[in-house]
Specification:
single chain; alpha+beta; Transposase Inhibitor Protein From Tn5, Chain A, domain 1; 2 domains; about 45% helix; DNA binding
Length: about 425
Amino acid sequence: MPASASCPALDLLTDLPDTARDAVLAAVRDQPGQLAVELAGVGDGRKPRGRRHPLLPILMVAIWAVLGGARSYVAIAEQWRHCADHLHIGAAGTWWAPLLKSGAPSMWTIRLALCKLDVAALEAAVCRWATGQALAAVDAARAATGTARRRAAELRLVISIDGKTLRGTINAAGEQVALVAIMEHATRTILTQAAIVAGDEIAAARTALSQLAEVLDFSGGEGGAGVLVTGDALHTQRPLATWLAEQGGHYLFRVRGNHPTLEHYARSRAWKQVPSTRVYTRAHGRRESRTIRVLSLTQAQSAGIAHLMGGVAQVIAITRTRAPLDGEATAARKPIKTSRETVYYVTSLSAHEADPALLATWIRDHWALENGVHYVRDVTFCEDASRVRTGVGPQVMAALRNLAITLHRLAGQTNIAAACREHAHQPAASLEVVLAA
């Protein structure tokens, strides 16, 4: 099983002889990993009287179980019960052995603990850990590939933000739990999430970004490039753009009909006079071309639309043309139709901070949040089919899934379903990854 990138000691195991491997394991097992340190501060909402099982081991075992594909409280309890030998052998002589003296908790105990915990503290702890791991992984990748010598714009930390409804959480009133997640582009790791209250996704986005701002300097620090936030049309809001500017960050947002005046402004530019860059791709039985045109605004032009969106430095138009490959239209069960669409974006980055190629890359990578996170949670972890809906349980389970996906991504896994099966088949090695994270 690939070692997690979150533990330098475990990264060495595959290259060490047995005696040296045992020495490394002994060194890292005496103290908790950073994830456990962060989770130790999460408040337990259960009443103290009669509490036998501390919250920390329940959280750690829950992560261990979800890492192997567990989808419910029952599956977490079964993991603890069926793999108790691995659990106690792995914990023997370590920092958390005393925490397991009460034995395996029931499903009801796990359910109560996860539904009653301080979810805000949990999200903050996960945010601190995931952000640190993502930054370390990005820095290591840059150092290994020599990209540290490239210009600052290409080293910019880029994050996507998008919302998702947990369909299985519908209650008698017809309400469903919805969450906003933030993903880092380079590593595809989930940094944090926040609950959408009363359908206000913008407020939830602000909450998630504010939580991230507590552990991450959006301005990039001295000589840094700053953080870029990508979002769909729903997040194209002037208050959010203003807040990002105050934090020293930047935005790249899509413009659609929910901002008709701004959309009209983008559409009415003299695009035929703007130089274009075109990219061709062939996949999935079709050929596709993307033409990007980027129009830089003067300070006067930017000030003229400040009442619509503050700090706009460039307006982007992308024309996508899709057509079937020769012979594919008749061979496919459903004919592929030729289509053409033009979409518009605005960004606070100037032309010298982001060229058309970078902008096109960031726009495409934004959808990795939908394909690499939301889709994985729906298909691999069956999130929409989950009937967990009591208390903060749905958000906690989503946070555990995010942690599992992040651990798999940091370990270099691209097929999360296969990674879950691998961890399920090797519970002892999987436990080491969780304890050392």
